[in-house]
Amino acid sequence: MTVTFRALLGASVAFTLAGAALAETTITVATVNNGDMVRMQGLMDDFNAKYPDIKVEWVTLEENVLRQNVTTDIATGGGQYDVITIGTYEVPIWGKQGWLASLNDLPADYDVNDLLPAIRGGLTVDGNLYASPFYGESSMVMYRKDLMEAARMTMPDAPTWADIEAAAKAMTNRDAGINGICLRGKAGWGENMAFLTAMSNSFGARWFDENWVPQFDQPEWKATLDFYLNLMTNYGPPGASNNGFNENLTLFQQGKCGMWIDATVAASFVTNPKDSTVADKVGFALAPDNGLGKRGNWLWAWSLAIPASSQKQEAAKTFINWATNKDYLALVASKEGWANVPPGTRTSLYANPEYAKVPFAKMTIDSINSADPNKPTVKPVPYVGVQFVAIPEFQGLGTSVGEIFSAALAGQKTADVALGEAQSLVTDEMKAAGYIK
Questions:
Q1: What is the pLDDT of residues 246-285, one digit of tens each?
Q2: In a domain? residue 437
Q3: Which of 86, 230, 292, 420 has its CA 20 to 30 A from that of 24?
Q4: Pair (102, 120) in one structural domain
């Protein structure tokens, strides 16, 4: 009996210590300041009720700053964050480096097989799921139906860039403060270069040829940049070189944009009457093309991952499961309605008849399915990725080129000068990295 009592006492002490340790578990979550992530923070009462022993501290940052901070921390093994918000670009690179913890052991109710195949595939390396998608997206055209009607025009479901230019011209009314089109101009590989790289695919351009030789000196890139600069100069908002996703979202919600070509995830925000003055006037179309077989849309997932350096991986996995499983989607729907559920991650969402009633649901999934990261361009390329090139050097390259093109949008240099600078810069970097001689 004495041995049994001591064993029970030891188990009790161990349990108490484990409980005390768990009660003190605080995880730090680094995330982007996009609307869906902000909404998640507002729903933390549900998490806190289910997991009172896990405390969450948030670090919420603008997109470019988040990427810089998270990249520095994970590359140095700093251990500052337990959960990080990263994208489809980082996951395969960082997974291969051993910088991320595998999520293959998430509980059964996570239902990994429910993830959309295209999204799951982009987050899996050598059979390991290294990030769980919070929302998936492509890009599409969001436009003002009332302004199109006033111009006696109709937006095709699958427009060309010529259609977009004609509509932008017709809808621009500077006296009324209405710009025909709003597009990203803020420098960053995930800001203006996400848009311009996807756009360039539809113009037949590519970052590199099959031998990794940069292609900014080719006519397809000149056609892309000339068209973009002319479109924005003639029909875009003032100060557009400072505008990224969030700035354009605000402009559109305030009724200052006739069209906005950007992430499909924005659809719930531009149609939400709480925030958008044009909520009942928004139509949707596929991203434009030029008849070459590629549309100007991207493929992306903002996902939650755990740095291998985290000392609190079990608590971090508990949080990720809560934030990205089917129950979370149902929670958002119960609080905010189905239109505000994080889109683009799960097959079951698009099979849900309630979600099918959401006006942008079909256009979102059609846009996601039309993007092909394995064959992103008209001409052959040695890389994967639609709006990015999946090599470690691209984060720096994309931001540097983005700064050059943003300066061109601000009128500080011509398209020809910008393209020449981009060609020279990228060539030098690719030589230094050993891709070309």
A1: 999 999 999 999 999 999 999 999 999 999 999 999 999 9
A2: no
A3: 86
A4: yes
Q: Output the domain CATH number for residue 28.
A: 3.40.190.10
Domain shared by 234 and 273, yes or no: yes
Residue 237 tokens, joined: 């908002």
Q: In what order do the strands lie in the sheet containing 139-144?
A: 259-263, 139-144, 282-286
Instruction: Tell me the per-residue pLDDT of 120-154, one tens digit each, with 9 for 90 and over.
Output: 988 999 999 999 999 999 999 999 999 999 999 99
Q: Count of domains in the chain? A: 2
In whole angstroms, give the CA distance from residue 165 to residue 182.
12
The CA-CA-CA angle for residues 181, 61, 134, to 5°, reads 80
- pTM score, whole prediction: 0.85
Residue 372 lies in a domain: no
Residues 110 and 67 in one domain: yes
Pick from 193, 196, 184: which is nearest to 224 by CA? 196
**Percentage of residues of the chain with pLDDT beyond 90:** 90
CB 248 within 8 A of CB 262: yes
376-385: b (≥16 Cβ within 10 Å) or e: bbbeebebbb
Q: Quick one: 324 and 385 in the same domain? A: no
Q: What is the C-alpha to C-alpha distance for residues 227 and 241, in angstroms, rounded to an integer?
A: 16
